[in-house]
Amino acid sequence: MSAADLERLHSDLINCRRCPRLVEWREEVAVNKRAAFRDEPYWGRPVPGFGDPDARIVLVGLAPAAHGANRTGRMFTGDRSGDWLYRALFRAGLATQPVSNAIDDGLELDNVWVTSAVRCAPPDNKPLPVERDNCSRWMTAELGALDQTRVYLCLGGYGYQALWRHLMSRELELPRPRPKFGHGLEVNLDGLTLLCSYHPSQQNTFTGRLTEEMLDAVVGRAVALAG
Q1: Of 50, 91, 99, 152, which has the maximum CB count within 10 A?
Q2: How far are the Cα atoms of 1, 52, 82, 84, 109 from residue 87, in angstroms, in the given order?
């Protein structure tokens, strides 16, 4: 697919209302805003992927944060997780700047695409299985359009599981049983490489479970594998 094809796909995505619970939550959050953002408009819709359509590296997260991407309309933008992620991408030469505060802040990505398993902000960051399954059609379409992909980098166990289900649908030769998720996990499959990192959530970064050095190492490994 071309960049124009991706834009058409995303035009369909942002109008999706298949999951009543997620629609209600994302729109409620957009009305009852966090005090720090009370004067800002909220996106309040499904969030498309973002990055370079010719990317060889694809990052897969969980879902938009209620007051992050659900507010700004761009993946990992406007929250602490995004602060960590885009600093790491900048240090690796994959982003033009180390900050991502708003959809129009000038950030551009090179050779990397950022997306998530679920496209609407879920209550408590916990999508239901049926919501994940409803959203799988968008993952299938978007990842199918990114035909230069060589490396998938999963940010967290949820993204890993969702991506594995997607790869199963493509009838790739996958190891059985599925390797257990862990930071630094590397799985080679049919010309692709799947890497894993702990999610750059505050739960992981504040506790030291994920450090900047750890995130830099796995992003650097993705860059090396992508060529």
Answers
A1: 152
A2: 29, 17, 8, 5, 12
* Percent of the chain surpassing pLDDT 90: 93
The CA–CA distances, whole Å, from 88 to 96, 169, 214 equal 11, 31, 10
In whole angstroms, what is the distance from residue 215 CA to residue 138 CA?
27
CA distances from 125 to 61, 62, 79, 226 (A): 11, 8, 14, 30
User: What pLDDT is recorded for position 104?
Assistant: 96
> Which whole-number Å values give the CA distances from 14 to 44, 160, 204, in the listed order?
10, 23, 30
Measured in degrees and rounded to the nearest 5, phi and psi for residue 210 equal: -120, 125
Write down the pLDDT at residue 3.
76
Who contacts 87 (Cβ-Cβ below 8 Å, separation ≥6)?
Answer: 98, 99, 212
